[in-house]
Amino acid sequence: MSSGKLIAYIAAAILIFFGVLFLFASGASSQGVLWIIIGVILVASGFGLIWFAGRKDVQKTEFIQKIELSGDIELETLTCRSCGGTLTSDNVKMMAGAPLVSCPYCGTSYQLSEEPKW
Q: Based on the structure, what is the number of domains in the chain?
């Protein structure tokens, strides 16, 4: 359970508790109708908060980007610019639409750029 849901459930319990107190106290007060209205609003708000916190989380969508290259491709080993360590595809992540390399050997991070072929 996330901390946000826990806080919502605690707040809902407090609202329901005070709402029930207002409803019980409405019989002993000269302003009973007003206290009944306040109690009902507090209890309804508490149950509404429980409903809102209990909803399922929005599922995250994963986008897979596939690149089709024309012609024959010769694969080269990807190495770190700083230390020359061999990198794998696990070391390359897409951040804000650009490929970002993180070297596990020296800790350097940099954006990949394609050099012209000519």
A: 2
User: Could you give phi then psi for residue 43, rounded to 5 degrees?
Assistant: -65, -45
Closest CA to 24 of 78, 112, 16: 16
| Residue 16 in domain | yes
In sequence order, the 6+-apart residues with CB closer than 8 A to the CB of 86 are 77, 78, 79
> What is the Cα–Cα distance from 35 to 15, expressed in whole angstroms?
14
Whole-prediction pTM value?
Answer: 0.47
Tell me the pLDDT tens digit for each residue of 13-63. Answer: 999 999 999 988 887 767 788 889 999 999 999 999 999 888 876 677 788
Query: Do residues 7 and 46 both lie within one domain?
Result: yes
Q: How far apart are CA 112 and CA 105, in angstroms?
A: 17
Whether the CB-CB separation of 51 and 92 falls below 8 Å is answered with no
- Whether 49 and 87 map to the same domain: the answer is no
Q: Are residues 7 and 50 in the same domain?
A: yes
- Which range marks the domain in which residue 40 is found? 3-54
